[in-house]
Amino acid sequence: MILVDLGGTYHQDLRQDVFVKEEYYFLNVSGIGTFTVYDTFDCTFECLSNPSCLSLNLAASKEADGKFWCQLLSSHKFINPNEYKENESSHHFSLKVRSRPTSCVQYGQQSASNDGIYKIYDNGGNTFLAYCDLRSEPGIAWTLVMSWSRENRLMSAFHNSPFQINAPEHETYPSWDRYRLSLERMRSLQAHSTHWRATCSYPTHGIDFRDYLRGNFKDFNIVDFMGWGTCKRVEHINIRGYVGTNLTAPFWQDIHNTFILHTDSEAAHCEFNAASTGAVPSEDNFGFYSSFNTNFRCTQGPQSNTQWWFGAHV
């Protein structure tokens, strides 16, 4: 893992270190807000105050009322290079780095490209270190929220503590064999994410979409879900090479009977049915692991591990 510390505290005297100014350029994309301002500082301050702002266009000269127009943008020239053009009426300012990144998504939006450990700010303004996967799925940035090895499967944080239980484990520094963020930090990341995924032995296999699960929070809010074998829609699921896309699969998570979120590939009552593809009796997948299959990458051996991630498109 590598440590990339791009976090910082904004101060008006350091504005030149936060923005790159390119005179007589304009990024022609939809804005998230247009203002009239007295000077450059007012415009850049508006951008830094808006979590979605990555760059801005600013008029090169004042209007008749003595003010400049200022347009905030949620994109930048690296995302929309074909829309970045010279002109005679404006200057373009792009953030070198978001001063308070709240997820790995913002690092991806700033064109960070190295996977590794980054500084993140939670909703309370406190920092923590998180592992960011910025490369495995082009266009999506993922933040690791939980990882544990098969040999640690019976620890409370990974066996009988649903997502909505606050059960942090070794959260001060990400590791693959024993790591879980606090509920507060999970919810902070969830607020800046549209999708979630589960992976098996990511450090060994990376992402080749075998033994892999992905969904979106709109269809399936995994943090607040409670149920027994409830059929929930997922975007993609692969268990032992058996694949399903845009269908329902059964999920368990219960705060009273203490199941962490998982599916069971032997269950056959939802659209995804892998019961006849080598499942063992009551086979647990992506969590719980009271019954596990050594042909499933998450549970092949004692050091095999399971990950849960939150993410979004950049």
Automatic annotation (TrEMBL):
Keywords attached to this entry: Calcium, Disulfide bond, Lectin, Metal-binding
InterPro entries, per database record: Fibrinogen-like_C, Fibrinogen_a/b/g_C_1
Stretches that traverse the bilayer: none
Protein name per its UniProtKB record: Apple domain-containing protein
Organism: Porites evermanni
